[in-house]
Design brief:
390 residues; mainly alpha; three-stranded mixed β-sheet; two-stranded parallel ribbon; 14 helices; 5 strands; 54% helix
Protein backbone atom coordinates (compact mmCIF):
# COMPACT_ATOMS: atom_id res chain seq x y z
CA UNK A 1 0.00 0.00 0.00
CA UNK A 2 1.21 3.49 -0.82
CA UNK A 3 0.20 6.63 1.01
CA UNK A 4 -0.81 9.88 -0.65
CA UNK A 5 1.59 12.81 -0.50
CA UNK A 6 0.92 16.18 -2.11
CA UNK A 7 3.86 18.47 -1.32
CA UNK A 8 3.60 21.87 -2.95
CA UNK A 9 5.82 22.91 -5.84
CA UNK A 10 5.09 26.65 -6.13
CA UNK A 11 5.32 27.96 -9.69
CA UNK A 12 5.12 31.75 -9.95
CA UNK A 13 3.45 31.90 -13.33
CA UNK A 14 5.79 33.66 -15.80
CA UNK A 15 5.36 32.04 -19.21
CA UNK A 16 2.33 30.03 -18.17
CA UNK A 17 -0.86 29.91 -20.20
CA UNK A 18 -2.93 29.48 -17.05
CA UNK A 19 -5.93 31.83 -16.91
CA UNK A 20 -6.55 31.69 -13.15
CA UNK A 21 -4.78 31.04 -9.86
CA UNK A 22 -6.07 27.49 -9.45
CA UNK A 23 -3.08 25.16 -8.99
CA UNK A 24 -2.32 22.40 -11.45
CA UNK A 25 -2.51 19.01 -9.73
CA UNK A 26 -0.50 16.14 -11.22
CA UNK A 27 -1.19 12.63 -10.02
CA UNK A 28 1.62 10.16 -9.51
CA UNK A 29 0.51 8.28 -12.61
CA UNK A 30 0.47 11.46 -14.73
CA UNK A 31 3.98 12.36 -13.62
CA UNK A 32 5.25 8.90 -14.52
CA UNK A 33 3.52 9.12 -17.90
CA UNK A 34 5.32 12.43 -18.50
CA UNK A 35 8.55 10.59 -17.73
CA UNK A 36 7.74 7.83 -20.20
CA UNK A 37 6.87 10.29 -22.95
CA UNK A 38 10.09 12.25 -22.43
CA UNK A 39 12.12 9.04 -22.34
CA UNK A 40 10.56 8.05 -25.65
CA UNK A 41 11.37 11.47 -27.13
CA UNK A 42 14.95 11.09 -25.98
CA UNK A 43 15.21 7.56 -27.41
CA UNK A 44 13.91 8.70 -30.81
CA UNK A 45 16.46 11.52 -30.90
CA UNK A 46 19.37 9.28 -29.91
CA UNK A 47 18.38 6.80 -32.62
CA UNK A 48 18.48 9.55 -35.24
CA UNK A 49 21.96 10.91 -34.40
CA UNK A 50 24.34 10.69 -37.32
CA UNK A 51 26.01 12.51 -40.18
CA UNK A 52 23.98 15.71 -39.84
CA UNK A 53 25.04 16.15 -36.21
CA UNK A 54 28.66 15.33 -37.04
CA UNK A 55 28.69 17.89 -39.84
CA UNK A 56 27.10 20.51 -37.62
CA UNK A 57 29.70 20.42 -34.86
CA UNK A 58 32.56 20.39 -37.39
CA UNK A 59 31.10 23.50 -39.04
CA UNK A 60 30.86 25.27 -35.71
CA UNK A 61 34.46 24.38 -34.85
CA UNK A 62 35.62 25.59 -38.27
CA UNK A 63 33.75 28.87 -37.82
CA UNK A 64 35.12 29.35 -34.29
CA UNK A 65 38.69 28.84 -35.46
CA UNK A 66 38.13 31.15 -38.41
CA UNK A 67 36.90 33.96 -36.17
CA UNK A 68 39.85 33.47 -33.83
CA UNK A 69 42.41 33.60 -36.65
CA UNK A 70 40.69 36.67 -38.09
CA UNK A 71 40.61 38.40 -34.72
CA UNK A 72 44.25 37.65 -33.93
CA UNK A 73 45.32 38.73 -37.39
CA UNK A 74 43.37 41.99 -37.39
CA UNK A 75 44.97 43.01 -34.10
CA UNK A 76 48.23 43.49 -36.03
CA UNK A 77 46.41 46.49 -37.52
CA UNK A 78 44.85 47.41 -34.21
CA UNK A 79 46.22 50.95 -34.35
CA UNK A 80 43.30 51.66 -36.71
CA UNK A 81 40.15 52.02 -34.53
CA UNK A 82 37.71 50.39 -37.02
CA UNK A 83 40.08 47.43 -37.47
CA UNK A 84 40.53 47.12 -33.70
CA UNK A 85 36.76 46.97 -33.26
CA UNK A 86 36.48 44.34 -35.98
CA UNK A 87 39.25 42.33 -34.32
CA UNK A 88 37.56 42.49 -30.93
CA UNK A 89 34.24 41.51 -32.52
CA UNK A 90 35.74 38.48 -34.26
CA UNK A 91 37.65 37.41 -31.14
CA UNK A 92 34.53 37.84 -28.99
CA UNK A 93 32.48 35.62 -31.32
CA UNK A 94 35.28 33.04 -31.27
CA UNK A 95 35.37 32.95 -27.48
CA UNK A 96 31.57 32.77 -27.18
CA UNK A 97 31.36 29.88 -29.63
CA UNK A 98 34.19 28.06 -27.87
CA UNK A 99 32.56 28.57 -24.47
CA UNK A 100 28.90 27.98 -25.34
CA UNK A 101 28.24 25.90 -28.45
CA UNK A 102 31.48 23.89 -28.32
CA UNK A 103 32.99 23.69 -24.83
CA UNK A 104 29.86 23.53 -22.70
CA UNK A 105 28.12 21.07 -25.00
CA UNK A 106 31.10 18.83 -25.73
CA UNK A 107 31.87 18.50 -22.00
CA UNK A 108 28.30 17.38 -21.43
CA UNK A 109 29.12 14.34 -23.53
CA UNK A 110 26.86 15.43 -26.38
CA UNK A 111 29.32 14.21 -29.00
CA UNK A 112 30.93 11.26 -27.21
CA UNK A 113 29.01 8.93 -29.53
CA UNK A 114 31.21 10.17 -32.41
CA UNK A 115 34.31 8.59 -30.81
CA UNK A 116 36.31 11.61 -31.93
CA UNK A 117 39.25 12.12 -29.48
CA UNK A 118 39.09 15.90 -29.84
CA UNK A 119 35.40 15.91 -28.89
CA UNK A 120 35.60 13.52 -25.95
CA UNK A 121 33.94 15.02 -22.88
CA UNK A 122 36.55 13.64 -20.49
CA UNK A 123 39.60 15.21 -22.14
CA UNK A 124 38.25 18.38 -23.80
CA UNK A 125 39.61 21.73 -22.59
CA UNK A 126 38.13 25.11 -23.41
CA UNK A 127 39.42 28.66 -23.85
CA UNK A 128 38.60 29.88 -20.34
CA UNK A 129 40.29 29.90 -16.93
CA UNK A 130 38.18 27.16 -15.30
CA UNK A 131 39.76 23.67 -15.45
CA UNK A 132 37.43 21.36 -17.37
CA UNK A 133 37.45 18.63 -14.70
CA UNK A 134 36.35 21.08 -12.00
CA UNK A 135 33.58 22.43 -14.23
CA UNK A 136 32.33 18.93 -15.00
CA UNK A 137 31.98 18.32 -11.26
CA UNK A 138 30.33 21.61 -10.31
CA UNK A 139 28.10 21.77 -13.39
CA UNK A 140 27.51 18.34 -14.94
CA UNK A 141 27.27 16.56 -11.59
CA UNK A 142 26.20 19.01 -8.89
CA UNK A 143 23.98 21.33 -10.92
CA UNK A 144 22.36 18.83 -13.26
CA UNK A 145 21.81 16.25 -10.53
CA UNK A 146 20.46 18.66 -7.91
CA UNK A 147 18.94 21.28 -10.22
CA UNK A 148 17.34 24.08 -8.17
CA UNK A 149 17.41 22.12 -4.90
CA UNK A 150 18.16 24.62 -2.15
CA UNK A 151 21.23 23.66 -0.17
CA UNK A 152 22.46 21.28 -2.89
CA UNK A 153 22.59 23.22 -6.17
CA UNK A 154 25.24 25.91 -5.67
CA UNK A 155 24.24 27.55 -8.95
CA UNK A 156 21.42 29.14 -6.92
CA UNK A 157 23.21 32.40 -6.18
CA UNK A 158 26.70 31.04 -6.89
CA UNK A 159 27.46 31.34 -3.19
CA UNK A 160 27.31 35.16 -3.27
CA UNK A 161 23.81 36.20 -4.44
CA UNK A 162 20.28 36.02 -3.08
CA UNK A 163 18.34 34.95 -6.16
CA UNK A 164 15.47 32.99 -4.57
CA UNK A 165 12.86 33.98 -1.98
CA UNK A 166 13.65 30.88 0.07
CA UNK A 167 17.22 32.04 0.70
CA UNK A 168 17.38 33.63 4.16
CA UNK A 169 18.02 37.36 3.97
CA UNK A 170 20.87 39.08 5.80
CA UNK A 171 22.36 42.60 5.47
CA UNK A 172 25.10 41.32 3.16
CA UNK A 173 22.47 40.93 0.44
CA UNK A 174 21.92 44.70 0.32
CA UNK A 175 24.88 44.54 -2.05
CA UNK A 176 23.11 41.99 -4.29
CA UNK A 177 23.17 44.20 -7.43
CA UNK A 178 26.86 45.01 -6.90
CA UNK A 179 27.82 41.37 -6.39
CA UNK A 180 25.78 40.38 -9.46
CA UNK A 181 27.45 43.03 -11.62
CA UNK A 182 30.90 41.93 -10.45
CA UNK A 183 30.04 38.28 -11.17
CA UNK A 184 28.85 39.22 -14.65
CA UNK A 185 32.04 41.12 -15.50
CA UNK A 186 34.32 38.41 -14.08
CA UNK A 187 32.13 35.43 -14.88
CA UNK A 188 34.86 33.05 -16.08
CA UNK A 189 36.66 33.60 -12.77
CA UNK A 190 33.45 33.06 -10.81
CA UNK A 191 32.91 29.78 -12.65
CA UNK A 192 36.51 28.80 -11.89
CA UNK A 193 36.02 29.42 -8.15
CA UNK A 194 32.63 27.68 -8.03
CA UNK A 195 33.96 24.38 -6.69
CA UNK A 196 35.86 26.20 -3.94
CA UNK A 197 32.63 26.89 -2.02
CA UNK A 198 34.17 30.09 -0.69
CA UNK A 199 31.26 30.80 1.67
CA UNK A 200 31.87 27.43 3.37
CA UNK A 201 35.60 28.13 3.60
CA UNK A 202 34.87 31.51 5.23
CA UNK A 203 32.42 29.91 7.68
CA UNK A 204 34.93 27.20 8.57
CA UNK A 205 32.80 24.41 7.11
CA UNK A 206 35.53 23.56 4.63
CA UNK A 207 39.24 23.58 5.42
CA UNK A 208 41.84 25.12 3.16
CA UNK A 209 43.75 21.85 2.92
CA UNK A 210 40.62 20.32 1.37
CA UNK A 211 40.83 22.71 -1.56
CA UNK A 212 44.54 22.42 -2.38
CA UNK A 213 43.86 20.22 -5.44
CA UNK A 214 41.53 22.93 -6.75
CA UNK A 215 44.19 25.60 -6.31
CA UNK A 216 46.71 23.49 -8.22
CA UNK A 217 44.23 23.12 -11.07
CA UNK A 218 43.64 26.88 -11.12
CA UNK A 219 47.35 27.59 -11.25
CA UNK A 220 47.86 25.29 -14.20
CA UNK A 221 44.79 26.25 -16.24
CA UNK A 222 44.27 29.92 -15.38
CA UNK A 223 48.02 30.52 -15.54
CA UNK A 224 48.12 29.29 -19.13
CA UNK A 225 45.09 31.37 -20.09
CA UNK A 226 46.50 34.56 -18.57
CA UNK A 227 49.87 33.94 -20.22
CA UNK A 228 48.25 33.35 -23.61
CA UNK A 229 45.79 36.25 -23.67
CA UNK A 230 47.66 38.87 -21.69
CA UNK A 231 51.33 38.20 -22.41
CA UNK A 232 52.15 36.00 -25.43
CA UNK A 233 49.67 37.35 -28.00
CA UNK A 234 50.24 41.00 -27.03
CA UNK A 235 54.02 40.48 -27.19
CA UNK A 236 53.69 38.96 -30.66
CA UNK A 237 52.24 42.23 -31.95
CA UNK A 238 55.35 44.15 -30.80
CA UNK A 239 54.66 47.88 -30.51
CA UNK A 240 50.91 47.19 -30.48
CA UNK A 241 51.23 45.35 -27.15
CA UNK A 242 48.81 47.68 -25.35
CA UNK A 243 46.13 47.72 -28.05
CA UNK A 244 46.30 43.93 -28.38
CA UNK A 245 46.11 43.52 -24.61
CA UNK A 246 43.09 45.83 -24.53
CA UNK A 247 41.49 43.83 -27.34
CA UNK A 248 41.95 40.53 -25.54
CA UNK A 249 40.62 41.96 -22.28
CA UNK A 250 37.58 43.35 -24.09
CA UNK A 251 36.85 40.08 -25.90
CA UNK A 252 36.96 38.17 -22.62
CA UNK A 253 34.70 40.78 -21.05
CA UNK A 254 32.17 40.47 -23.89
CA UNK A 255 32.20 36.69 -23.53
CA UNK A 256 31.71 36.97 -19.75
CA UNK A 257 28.75 39.35 -19.97
CA UNK A 258 27.06 37.30 -22.69
CA UNK A 259 27.56 33.95 -20.97
CA UNK A 260 26.34 35.28 -17.63
CA UNK A 261 23.25 36.79 -19.24
CA UNK A 262 22.28 33.63 -21.13
CA UNK A 263 22.79 31.40 -18.10
CA UNK A 264 20.90 33.67 -15.72
CA UNK A 265 18.02 34.03 -18.21
CA UNK A 266 17.73 30.24 -18.28
CA UNK A 267 17.73 29.77 -14.53
CA UNK A 268 16.45 32.78 -12.61
CA UNK A 269 13.66 34.76 -14.31
CA UNK A 270 10.32 35.13 -12.56
CA UNK A 271 8.46 31.84 -12.54
CA UNK A 272 11.43 29.49 -12.24
CA UNK A 273 10.96 27.24 -9.24
CA UNK A 274 13.30 26.02 -6.51
CA UNK A 275 12.78 22.92 -4.38
CA UNK A 276 13.67 21.51 -0.98
CA UNK A 277 15.61 18.34 -0.28
CA UNK A 278 12.52 16.82 1.35
CA UNK A 279 10.39 17.48 -1.75
CA UNK A 280 12.88 15.71 -3.98
CA UNK A 281 13.82 12.76 -1.79
CA UNK A 282 13.49 9.38 -3.51
CA UNK A 283 12.56 11.10 -6.76
CA UNK A 284 11.30 9.01 -9.65
CA UNK A 285 12.39 9.58 -13.25
CA UNK A 286 9.13 11.36 -14.02
CA UNK A 287 9.44 13.60 -10.97
CA UNK A 288 13.01 14.48 -11.98
CA UNK A 289 11.75 15.50 -15.42
CA UNK A 290 9.01 17.69 -13.92
CA UNK A 291 11.56 19.38 -11.66
CA UNK A 292 13.71 20.20 -14.68
CA UNK A 293 10.77 21.76 -16.52
CA UNK A 294 9.64 23.85 -13.56
CA UNK A 295 13.20 24.87 -12.71
CA UNK A 296 14.25 26.23 -16.12
CA UNK A 297 13.29 28.91 -18.63
CA UNK A 298 13.80 29.51 -22.36
CA UNK A 299 14.73 32.58 -24.38
CA UNK A 300 13.11 33.21 -27.75
CA UNK A 301 15.26 34.35 -30.68
CA UNK A 302 16.59 33.74 -34.16
CA UNK A 303 18.61 30.67 -35.25
CA UNK A 304 21.80 32.75 -34.98
CA UNK A 305 20.83 33.81 -31.46
CA UNK A 306 20.38 30.17 -30.49
CA UNK A 307 23.80 29.23 -31.90
CA UNK A 308 25.50 32.09 -30.06
CA UNK A 309 23.81 30.98 -26.84
CA UNK A 310 25.07 27.42 -27.29
CA UNK A 311 21.35 26.63 -27.65
CA UNK A 312 21.10 27.26 -23.90
CA UNK A 313 18.31 29.58 -24.98
CA UNK A 314 16.48 26.23 -24.82
CA UNK A 315 17.38 25.73 -21.17
CA UNK A 316 14.26 23.64 -20.48
CA UNK A 317 15.22 21.12 -23.14
CA UNK A 318 18.86 21.23 -22.02
CA UNK A 319 17.89 20.34 -18.45
CA UNK A 320 15.72 17.50 -19.70
CA UNK A 321 18.34 16.13 -22.12
CA UNK A 322 21.77 17.53 -21.16
CA UNK A 323 23.73 14.95 -23.17
CA UNK A 324 21.82 15.32 -26.45
CA UNK A 325 23.45 17.58 -29.08
CA UNK A 326 22.19 21.06 -28.22
CA UNK A 327 21.46 22.01 -31.83
CA UNK A 328 18.63 19.45 -31.64
CA UNK A 329 16.83 21.41 -28.91
CA UNK A 330 14.92 23.71 -31.32
CA UNK A 331 13.24 20.68 -32.90
CA UNK A 332 12.50 19.15 -29.48
CA UNK A 333 11.12 22.36 -27.96
CA UNK A 334 7.68 22.30 -29.67
CA UNK A 335 7.17 18.71 -28.54
CA UNK A 336 8.15 19.54 -24.95
CA UNK A 337 5.88 22.61 -24.98
CA UNK A 338 3.01 20.50 -26.31
CA UNK A 339 3.58 17.96 -23.53
CA UNK A 340 3.50 20.76 -20.94
CA UNK A 341 0.22 21.99 -22.40
CA UNK A 342 -1.22 18.48 -22.33
CA UNK A 343 -0.74 18.27 -18.56
CA UNK A 344 -1.31 21.94 -17.76
CA UNK A 345 2.32 22.58 -16.86
CA UNK A 346 3.81 26.04 -17.45
CA UNK A 347 6.40 26.46 -20.18
CA UNK A 348 8.46 29.48 -19.15
CA UNK A 349 9.65 31.31 -22.25
CA UNK A 350 10.09 34.89 -23.43
CA UNK A 351 12.31 37.26 -25.33
CA UNK A 352 15.81 38.07 -24.14
CA UNK A 353 14.99 41.51 -22.77
CA UNK A 354 11.92 40.23 -20.97
CA UNK A 355 13.87 37.42 -19.31
CA UNK A 356 16.99 39.41 -18.43
CA UNK A 357 14.84 42.27 -17.13
CA UNK A 358 13.03 39.79 -14.92
CA UNK A 359 16.34 38.44 -13.61
CA UNK A 360 17.74 41.86 -12.71
CA UNK A 361 14.39 42.79 -11.17
CA UNK A 362 14.71 39.80 -8.83
CA UNK A 363 18.32 40.67 -8.02
CA UNK A 364 17.30 44.16 -6.88
CA UNK A 365 14.12 42.99 -5.16
CA UNK A 366 15.78 40.20 -3.19
CA UNK A 367 18.50 42.57 -1.99
CA UNK A 368 15.86 44.08 0.31
CA UNK A 369 14.54 42.64 3.58
CA UNK A 370 11.46 40.41 2.99
CA UNK A 371 9.23 42.82 4.93
CA UNK A 372 9.85 45.55 2.36
CA UNK A 373 8.89 43.56 -0.73
CA UNK A 374 5.77 41.77 -1.88
CA UNK A 375 5.63 38.09 -0.96
CA UNK A 376 5.70 35.48 -3.70
CA UNK A 377 2.52 34.23 -5.33
CA UNK A 378 0.66 31.07 -4.27
CA UNK A 379 1.67 27.65 -5.60
CA UNK A 380 0.71 26.84 -9.17
CA UNK A 381 1.67 23.15 -9.37
CA UNK A 382 1.00 20.33 -6.93
CA UNK A 383 2.70 16.98 -7.52
CA UNK A 384 1.57 13.72 -6.02
CA UNK A 385 4.81 12.03 -5.09
CA UNK A 386 3.53 8.63 -4.01
CA UNK A 387 1.21 6.21 -5.79
CA UNK A 388 -2.44 6.52 -4.85
CA UNK A 389 -3.62 3.74 -2.55
CA UNK A 390 -5.57 1.01 -4.32
Amino acid sequence: MFGLSLPTLPFLGNGSDAKDDAPVVLTYEQVEEIGRELDALRDRTVASLGAEDREYIYKIIKAQRGFEVAGRGLLYLGFLPPVWLAAVGALSVSKILDNMEIGHNVMHGQYDWMREPGLNSEVFEWDTVCPADQWRHSHNYMHHTYTNILGKDRDIGYGILRIDDAQKWNPYYLGNPVWAFALMMLFEWGVMMHDLEIENVIQGKRKWHDVKPLLKGWWNKAGKQVLKDYVIFPVLTGPLFVTTLAGNVTANLVRNVWTYSIIFCGHFPTGVQSFTEDETADETRGQWYVRQMLGSANIEGSPLFHIMSGNLSHQIEHHLFPDLPAHRYPELAPQVKELCGKYGLPYNTGGFFKQIGSVWGKIFKLALPPGLVKSKTPPGVIVERQRTAA
